[in-house]
């Protein structure tokens, strides 16, 4: 009997416990969420949408934590909010070609099947509909990751995944193209935040609802000695002259359009009116 070796490879790895993410985000809202990153993204998103110079009828806000994009509703009264459900499902409730705009702020970094979610968004957009999203990525929390890894290797003889793996800019651009978006654009907004110490940073992460939700996380609490050593290493390696530590957050912005005949099209190979060689020759004579 032939063995189907591809049947399992079609399923993306499950990295994030999205049901736990739902619980943690709810708890963060109840305790008073720390929202400086979300506030920054919301303001930037309003500016970016205003620059598009387009009216968007049917619009959806996908999984943005809390009321993160509440201010955007003044620009987009029709904005429908899709909350992360208790099961953390990644199946979207949109009919095909039903939306002019999908926005999402600081949510897509916790998706297990990002190619699948982007493909669902692409199907839900009407021709010439827009996806505009911001997610944590790149070198975010690189300092915390390095300090934890060094402390655990030193104190516990091994390293457990404490900080989520983040996608980089090139990955995201490739995924937009793979999902069938036209005119994909990505860029990074790097934010460096300073804290009194590593514990103050970790407290903020908890109150963002962003504490460790990795499936492979160590189930036992960190040892006190490991946490103290992590904070020492963080301060030794990533502190400024005044003793405050730095924490890097890379916000990756991504946008893409559902294809439409009116959009700018790339030139077909061989269709250029003048060759590069001729242009170089001409420049040399001038």
What's the quick description here?
The chain is α/β, with parallel strands linked by helices and 286 residues long. It contains eight helices and six strands, in the order ααβββαβααβααβα.
Describe this structure in words.
The longest helix is centred in the first third of the chain and has 17 residues, at 36-52. Helix 4 (142-155) crosses helix 7. It contains eight helices and six strands. With 286 residues, the protein is an alpha/beta fold. The chain has helices spanning 18-31, 36-52, 114-124, 142-155, 169-178, 198-207, 224-238, 276-285, and strands at 59-62, 79-82, 99-105, 125-137, 182-195, 245-257. A six-stranded mixed sheet has the order 2-1-3-4-6-5, with helices on both faces. The protein is 35% helix and 19% strand.
Helices, strands, pairings?
Blueprint: H1 18-31, H2 36-52, E1 59-62, E2 79-82, E3 99-105, H3 114-124, E4 125-137, H4 142-155, H5 169-178, E5 182-195, H6 198-207, H7 224-238, E6 245-257, H8 276-285
Parallel strand pairs: 1-2, 1-3, 3-4
Antiparallel strand pairs: 4-6, 5-6
Helix pairs in contact: 4-7
Report the count of strand segments. Answer: 6
Name the structural class: alpha/beta
Low-pLDDT segments = 1-9
Determine the strand fraction and express it as a percent band.
Answer: 15-25%
How many helical elements?
Answer: 8
Rg over C-alpha atoms, rounded to the nearest angstrom: 22 Å
The arrangement of helices and strands along the chain is HHEEEHEHHEHHEH
Name the strands of the widest sheet in spatial order: 2-1-3-4-6-5
The first-to-last residue Cα distance is: 72 Å
Could you say which overall geometry the principal axes of the C-alpha atoms support? elongated
Largest sheet, in brief, is:
6 strands, mixed
């Amino acid at each position: 009997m032939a063995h189907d070796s591809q049947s399992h490879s079609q399923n993306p790895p499950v990295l994030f416990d999205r049901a736990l993410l739902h619980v943690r985000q709810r708890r963060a809202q109840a305790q008073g969420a720390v929202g400086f990153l979300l506030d920054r993204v919301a303001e930037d998103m309003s500016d970016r949408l205003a620059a598009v110079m387009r009216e968007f009828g049917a619009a959806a806000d996908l999984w943005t934590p809390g009321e993160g994009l509440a201010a955007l509703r003044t620009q987009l009264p029709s904005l429908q909010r899709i909350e992360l459900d208790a099961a953390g499902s990644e199946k979207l409730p949109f009919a095909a070609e039903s939306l002019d705009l999908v926005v999402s702020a600081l949510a897509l970094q916790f998706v297990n099947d990002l190619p699948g979610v982007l493909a669902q968004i692409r199907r839900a957009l009407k021709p010439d509909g827009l996806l505009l999203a911001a997610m944590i990525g790149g070198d975010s929390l690189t300092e915390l990751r390095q300090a934890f890894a060094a402390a655990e290797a030193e104190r516990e003889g091994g390293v457990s995944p404490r900080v989520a793996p983040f996608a980089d800019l090139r990955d995201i651009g490739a995924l937009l193209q793979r999902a069938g978006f036209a005119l994909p654009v990505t860029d990074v907004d790097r934010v460096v935040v300073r804290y009194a110490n590593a514990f103050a940073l970790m407290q903020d992460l908890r109150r963002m609802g962003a504490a460790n939700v990795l499936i492979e996380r160590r189930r036992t609490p960190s040892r006190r000695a490991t946490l103290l050593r992590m904070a020492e290493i963080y301060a030794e390696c990533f502190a400024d002259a005044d003793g405050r530590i730095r924490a890097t957050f890379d916000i990756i912005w991504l946008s893409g359009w559902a294809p439409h005949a009116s959009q700018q099209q790339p030139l077909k190979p061989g269709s250029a009116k003048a060759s590069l060689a001729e242009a170089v020759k001409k420049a040399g004579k001038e």
